Glucose-6-phosphate isomerase (Herpetosiphon gulosus), 464 residues
Amino acid sequence: MSTQAIRFDYNNVMADVIGEHGLTEAEIEAALPHAAAAIEAVYAQRADLGWMDLPYQDTSEIIAQAQAVRARADTLVVLGIGGSALGPIATQTALQHPFYNNLPRELRRGPTLFVPDNVDPELNAGLLDVLDLERTVFNVITKSGTTAETMASFIYFREALAKRLGKDKLIDHLVLTTDPKKGALRQIADREGYPTLPLPASVGGRFSELCAVGLFPAAVTGIDINEMLAGAAYADKRSQERDPRKNPAAMCALIQFLLDKKGKNMVVMMPYAQRLRDVADWFRQLWAESLGKRVDRAGNVVNVGPTPIKSLGATDQHSQVQLYAEGPFDKLMHFLFVEQFQLEAPLSNAYPDINELSYLDGKSFSQLLKAEGEATQLAIAEAGRPSMAHYFPAVNAYTLGQFYYMLEMQTAFAGELYNINAFDQPGVEAGKIATYALMGREGYDARRHEIEQARGRSRSEFII
Ligand SMILES: O=P(O)(O)OC[C@H]1O[C@](O)(CO)[C@@H](O)[C@@H]1O
């Protein structure tokens, strides 16, 4: 096993450790053939699942374009939503200085990065207040090339650029990441000549972090993207193991599936490292959009899907852990632990004479955070609640790429276990259609009429 391997520990889901809410060895043993079949089924689809091959892509074009942006910009703004924003945010938080944008330029590895990730008017108008547009590049990311939020952001910031710098300068301030052939943004790129990067048709939005979507912003801010891919390739190797017991992604999927069947239908990801906070956010989309489904592959109504929840140690010990420890037995926890932090914050011997504080003397923040993580894990287990732990030797480009890929494979395996299509999102499409109707998009009149009628049926006694 690589010294950079993330270790996966599932002792604390076992019934002999936590009691009746855990899994027995016999339950796991009986389900192993199902997990083995899920592994086979996913690899049988590999030709259609382009994200599975991303660890082996040629990154030279991404790096070349990133170098060009590094040379001409002080700020990169990513305009995207869902998979087109959550991954770039997670990677930045995980691999850069915690106050990266506030560091002086000579201590940063590249331009500052902003990912507004919403169409809130104040957020976007406010962002314009802090940007020096002459030294800003916008990376517009959308697979479909039509998503309302992203295209509205593109129109808004393109207009601001055009007003400030003139239309002929737009080409130096926009890089578009989208489908190589389809969509409105592709059409615009072809018509107006902006530089582009491909978001391959076979890579779904929430599985796109390891293509140009995530790699380009990461490379612009100086992250070693080939190292991320090396980590992902290592996770690919481990995920190909046909024996589920030796395959962390498959085992992790199987445990979550079995516990869901026993009523643990909430999955809490709780990193004990600030760097991994936004990875838990990225995981929420991956897990929720992939597994939350109305029908199974045969068309039966099943309404399945565990609810992913993000949490952060130690912060949420003082907000959520009371519920996790004593509330309903409906949760499974993923603890993410880091063995080696990049920065250390030691504590001095400040108050040796004050009994309640002397235990802190000469310790460090990492000791305290690790102790709090272990203590919470123990308390959750003693309260009879299942949890798993993922141990990162350190958070770096290699382990991050490895973890992303492992979670993607875990999601694909889980899709097979639930017998649903993990790669579509019909529930989100319904919301998109209603938005188009409300915004007056051509071709959506009938839907707008239905919504207006429903509004008319709203009863005043229920409005106070
Ligand atoms: O990349 P696009 O096409 O703009 O889509 C953005 C997001 O919208 C969704 O389609 C629905 O939320 C996600 O799957 C995707 O990541």
Observations:
- The first strand starts at residue 7 and ends at 9.
